[in-house]
Each structure stands twice: as C-alpha cells, then as structure tokens.
Amino acid sequence: MASPKLTAISKRAPKSADKEKTKLKTAKLISELDELQNLLIAENQHALLVIVQGMDASGKDGVIRNVFGSLNPLGVSVKSYKAPTAEELSHDFLWRIHKHAPAKGMIQIFNRSHYEDVLITRVHGWCDDETAVKRLKAINDFEELLTQHNKTTILKFYLHISQKEQQERLQERTHDPRKMWKYNEKDFDESRLWKKYMSYYQQCFTACNKIPWHVIPSDQNWYKEHLIATIVHNALSKLNMQYPGLKK
User: Fold this and answer.
1) Which domains, from first to last, does the chain contain?
2) What pTM value is reported for the model?
C-alpha cells in the first residue's frame, strides 16, 4: 500500500462540507459507537488500539475526549506517552509500550506512541539513522504481533495541522485561562523544527504502512472528529461481532 504524502493532503475540510450537518452525523456515529463497544466487551474476541500522533496543538486531547469520552470507561483506556523515565530508558524502547497493549474486549488509545522514538529522537539527534531503521522494523514486527496473535485492530491517525493554525493555537494558550495550563514555552521551539518533523513523519508513513496511516485534516476540529469517528465506526462494524449466548 502506498504511503500517504503530506504535501498532497489538505489540512481543511472540503469547501462543500456543511459544518452543522457534519456535526450531526458525528453525533450519530458516536452514539452508535456505544453499542459497538458493548459488543466488543461482550464478545471478548477482539481488541482495538487507536494511535493518535500529531504536532503540538494539533488537537490530540480534544479528539480523544470528544470521540471516545462518552464510551463505557470500563472498556476504554488512554495512555499518554511523555519523555521516558530512567527505568523505561533502561529497557528496550518498546517495553513501556507493550505493557499497555489492549486486552481482548478493550479499546486502548495512545496519545503519542512508540513512533516518538523515531520522530522527536531523530529531530534532536538522540537517535541515529541506523538505529532508527532498526526501530522502524521493530515497530512493524510489534504491530504485526498484535494484529496476528491477539486479534487487535490498529488504527493509526496523524492529525494534519498547518503550522499557521498551530501557531494560533499555541498563542491562544498564553491568554485563554482555560488553556493556560497547556502552555509550554518549548512548544514554540519545537515548531521551529517543523520541516524536520514533517520529513521524519513522512519516513514513518513509508516504512510503517503495512497497517495504513490515516492522515486527518485537522485545522477544523469538527471535521477532524467526524473523520476519526467514521473510521473507528467502520473498523468496529467490520468485525461482525455477535453477543454470546447463555453460558452452559
């Protein structure tokens, strides 16, 4: 499968898209996700891993809250990956990831993920190209292990935001009291490395596309949430899950 090309993908909804109608469709999809999740839990034969990647202020927290926030909390878990601890660094880079892989019947969401170990680490020179190639292979093997041996469906989302929109959202954090807690001066430094990040993201899409990436236009939150809700809904529907009968 061909890898997505960031330069060829818009960051905004098509001009023909109606915002209010789309939001109604999204609400219906999210309502139906509740029943699909119930089936997932009851049948206990499949797992879902949702990977959300994107630059700072691309809306990772918001899409997790707005698409998955109304689901049964007993069947969904969110793991946010930040800089590795000393203990995590003493293990292989996938050690901290694998222990949070979803059990059957569960939806696991990664806010950032194992891909950080071939993204920010390369941008800052903490990981050389030779090591990165080995890690990319290990990621492919890891994802294959989950899909082939634990019936895990993996959905990989890259939130495709423009640098202009990112700057506006970062600036908003400096004066909006509800968003000040998110402010981090280093986010502006990372934004200056935009071209490097885009280059390494593109390499991830090329090297790790056996399980396809979904590049989600993310300058408009309503459209981003609609696309992700649609993809998750379709993926769970295709599992053709059934409620188990009475236990004998």
Assistant:
1) 19-237 (3.40.50.300)
2) 0.96
